[in-house]
Amino acid sequence: MDKKIALITGATSGIGAACAHRFYEEGYHIIITGRRLERLNNFASQLDASRIKCLCFDVRDRSQVIQTLETLPMEWRKIDVLVNNAGLALGLSTFFKGDMDHWDTMMDTNVKGLLYVSRSISQGMIGRKHGHIINIGSIAGKEVYANGNVYCASKHAVDALSKAMRIELAEYGIRVSAVHPGAVETEFSEVRFEGDTEKAALVYKGFENLVAEDIADAVYYIASRKPHVNINDLVIMPQAQPVASVIHRK
Where on the phi/psi map is residue 73: left (φ > 0), alpha (ψ -120 to 50), or beta? Predict the structure, then answer.
């Protein structure tokens, strides 16, 4: 396979789906992963089957990650770009009233899932001395806001891991970047509020928020730089949101 390959986790919706579309449009073969097989198949049905591979697994499950990625067909193993997008927020409360199941899900997905996938994919990149890992963080990984405690902690961990990975992989010719978005209207808030669409809609009311395609543009820009250029860190916000906890609404 001569074309470049991009693997995008959490590609069943939002930023992940937008990144998958963008890389596909730019000529990449894409591997899309997620927990919802029907969505993966629906996504794939719209594209050239020879240029897309669907992998249904949960990044939180270490054995699933290892088994799935280590048994990829040989023609799909030379991954040029890994976009670690899978992640979520659950709940919005003080830590002392927090749901501990929510905590486990966020830390297992946002931190451990990123580690499991990155460790597996980086082995091939190290051997080829080529590759680019792009981690989707959050403004919550740069600032802390009230009632976002554990989610903020998980995204601060993504920020720290991105920096550590960059140091440890540089000698192998591998680039590591991180993108930290502010308010992006996707299914993020619906997931955070466990399906309460009315509550989720209020998050984006009264200002022009970012959309998934804005982040995909940034991710592809980062990936498309010349090999000697690495965009270490990119924070991208709506104009109306100067910091995490302030949004100017009309």
Answer: beta
Residue 1 has pLDDT above 50, yes or no: no
Q: How confident is the model over 7-42, as pLDDT tens digits?
A: 999 999 999 999 999 999 999 999 999 999 999 999
116 tagged catalytic: no
- The residue range of the domain holding 60 is 5-236
* Number of structural domains the chain divides into: 1
**For residue 97, is it within any domain?**
yes
CATH code of the domain covering residue 148 = 3.40.50.720
Strands 81-84, 29-34: pairing is unpaired
Closest among 205, 161, 157, 209 to 181, alpha carbons compared: 209
The percent of residues above 70 in pLDDT, for the chain, comes to 99
Residue 213 burial by CB count (10 A; 0-12/13-18/19+): exposed, middle or buried?
middle
| C-alpha dist (Å) from residue 31 to 61, 72, 130, 131, 172 | 18, 10, 18, 15, 23
| Among 24, 116, 151, 204, the one annotated catalytic | 151
